[in-house]
Write a structure and sequence with these properties.
The chain is mainly α. The chain contains 21 helices and no strands. It comes from Hevea brasiliensis.
């Protein structure tokens, strides 16, 4: 067709002119490169108008789809230059903010905001064209990976980054700043792509994941040290005497020494570390959002409750006055965690388990099996607690295997409820052998109860569930 030949000649001439402009004139090259989104929009509007003006019923389109693509390809040389310019400009900005030569310096909040604003400007310049937006996002992904790499290089490691006694060290303050900067980048960039097609999130997912990973890495050693310290406080529960009898013990309203130590540590961590990391309610951009640090604190609070319930269930012997003292400790723990770490009612299963375990310890053994409280507790916690109601010859797995509470706890961390039940069942079998070997036919009421509960509870519990 004549129109095809005319269009082919036109595109060929246009492509030649574009190539000439790119190679021969630096001024024109710069104008078309910087303004590529506008150039592309002009070409797209031209093609759309020609198609509209030549749309005649029963007649082939004046320009085919291939013809349109050829016209767009004619300016592709400027598209490549535009994307390279964006990548270069953003990379230079990152290199300025995170110079390789200076490891000790931490960028200011304003410098990080400048990078974010520049990225936002680049996205807004092309957002009307979905294809170009995706191409640009790939370049932005490279910039974010560079940013993550440079920030990771700045992270302080070693003892100073992990110490939890006394004031926050300069290394920790530096890591806090890096974490908050990366958190800001992650939050702001994620919000920019909310209104874009789903594929935009897929394009940036790896680089945003890298930003998130480095932000976590900057404070994870400190959080691990804090959790380890809180766990060591809870382990001291086994050094207390919860088997003491008498009204004096029952009337003592003070928290146990280990709980007082735990409260002091939690308060210190909140004052010295967490207050610097958690979002302020006065900050509208992050308040209410689940930030990286908020997630770490939530995890720490959940672990403290779970770890406490585990070891409270292992306490043996447990007298009536000891139960009152343990209930007071649980109330103190709930208050300390809720006020200084995370709202306990938002912690889900660990909180429900704590609230269930407190009244459970006061139930008569005959009432336990039918109690709805069992639904909120891991089977292992219920079964471990029942040892405190049995005779001394019914040894717990901890006693049977001659393990310390810490050693047994580490084993529990690595096992599911089904494996823990196997260890408990072995102690029940040993107890039955002892009773039968001396000619007795009567077992402690706890023995058949544990057999029934162990079989039914572990059948209903997920295999991978950890206590």
């Amino acid at each position: 067709m004549l129109t095809d030949r005319v269009w082919e000649a036109l595109v060929k001439a246009f492509a030649s002119q574009m190539k000439s402009a790119f190679t021969a004139s630096s001024f024109v090259k710069e104008i078309f490169t910087v303004g590529y989104p506008k150039l592309f929009s002009l070409i797209e509007n031209l093609l759309e108008r020609i198609s509209r003006d030549t749309d005649v019923k029963g007649v082939f389109p004046a320009i085919s789809l291939e013809g349109k693509e050829e016209m767009v390809q004619a300016i592709e040389i400027f598209q490549t230059a535009f994307l390279a310019l964006c990548l270069g400009g953003l990379s230079d900005l990152v290199n300025t903010v995170f110079p390789v030569s200076s490891r000790g310096s931490v960028p200011t909040k304003e410098q990080i905001s400048r990078i974010i604003s520049r990225i936002q400007e680049e996205i807004e310049a092309v957002q009307l064209d979905g294809r170009l937006t995706l191409l640009l996002l790939r370049e932005i992904g490279k910039v974010l990976l560079l940013l993550a790499e440079r920030a990771e290089y700045q992270i302080s490691a070693g003892h100073e980054a992990r110490q939890i006694v006394g004031l926050a060290t300069p290394a920790q303050v530096k890591n806090f700043a890096l974490c908050q900067h990366l958190q800001e980048v992650h939050t702001r960039i994620s919000s920019m792509i909310v209104g874009l097609p789903a594929i935009a999130a897929d394009v940036l997912s790896p680089s945003l994941g890298a930003i998130y990973g480095v932000a976590r890495e900057s404070v994870t050693p400190l959080f691990k040290a804090m959790v380890d310290r809180l766990e060591s406080c809870i382990l001291q529960i086994h050094e207390q005497n919860f088997g003491v009898l008498g009204m004096d013990a029952a009337m003592d309203n003070n928290a146990s020494p280990y709980m007082e130590e735990l409260q002091k540590c939690i308060l210190h961590f909140r004052t010295e570390f967490l207050s610097r990391l958690l979002p302020s309610s006065a900050n509208p951009t992050t308040a209410g959002a689940e930030t990286i640090c908020t997630q770490l604190v939530r995890s720490m609070a959940s672990r403290v409750l779970t770890f406490f319930i585990r070891h409270a269930s292992l306490v043996r012997p447990l007298s009536e006055s000891g139960k009152l003292r343990m209930a007071r400790d649980m109330a103190e723990l709930e208050l300390a965690v809720g006020q200084n770490l995370f709202p306990v009612e938002q912690l889900g299963p660990p909180y429900r388990a704590l609230r269930a375990f407190r009244p459970l310890i006061f139930l008569e053994t005959s009432q336990l099996e039918a109690s709805p409280l069992l639904q909120d507790l891991p089977p292992s916690v219920i079964l471990h607690h029942l040892y405190s109601r049995g005779p001394d010859e019914l040894q717990s797995p901890l006693q049977r295997n001659k393990l310390t509470p810490l050693q047994y706890s580490l084993w529990l961390d690595s096992q599911g409820e089904d494996q823990i039940w196997k260890g408990i069942k072995a102690t029940l079998d040993d107890y039955a052998v002892k009773v039968r070997s001396r000619g007795d036919k009567e077992f402690s009421p706890v023995y058949p109860l544990m057999l029934r509960l162990g079989s039914s509870l572990t059948e209903n519990a997920p295999v991978s569930q950890k206590p």
